[in-house]
Task: structure prediction
Amino acid sequence: MKKICLSVILFLTVIIMFLSSKGDKRADTECAIPCAMRHRPDTAIKINERTILLIENILNLPSVIKFSRIESVRRDHESVYGRVYGLQLKKDSIKINQHGENVILLRSMDSISTRKEPCFVFSKLIIQGDTAEVRLNFAITGFLAFGKMYYKQGRWYPTRTFRAGRT
Result:
C-alpha cells in the first residue's frame, strides 16, 4: 500500500512540474523581469530589439537628457554606461545611441563603480505586451525617472504617469 501511495505522489509531482514548466515559457517570450528578481544579476531576460528600442527611447526623452545633465557629464568623463538589472547579454556590452553619443550597456555591474563613473541604472524594466514599467537612476547627478511607457507604431512613448527629475 505504501508503495502505491508513493508512486501516486511521485506521479502527481511529475505532472505538476510538467504543467508549471509549460506556463514559464510565456514569461520568456514577453521579456519580463519579475519584481522579485530586480536586483539579481543576469537571471531574468534575454535582450531583443524591442528592449533595446525601449532603453534607447527612454534615454533620448527630453526630460531624461535635461535632468540627467548628460551633456556636462560627457565633458568630464570619457564614457557613459548603462546597466539593466536582470538583463542577460551574450556579448560584453552593447552600444545604445543617446543624443548622438554612445551609452555602453554593460553585462556586469562589477566592471565599474556607479558612484564614480556615469552609469544609467535600470533597477526595474518590466515589459508586458505593449506596455513597460521603468525605474531608472543616474547616481552621478542624482537623476531619477520612473513610470510607464507604451509601444505604438514601432516606438515607445511615456505615459502621463512617467516622471523624471533630480533627487
In short: Confidence is low (pLDDT under 50) at residues 21-45.
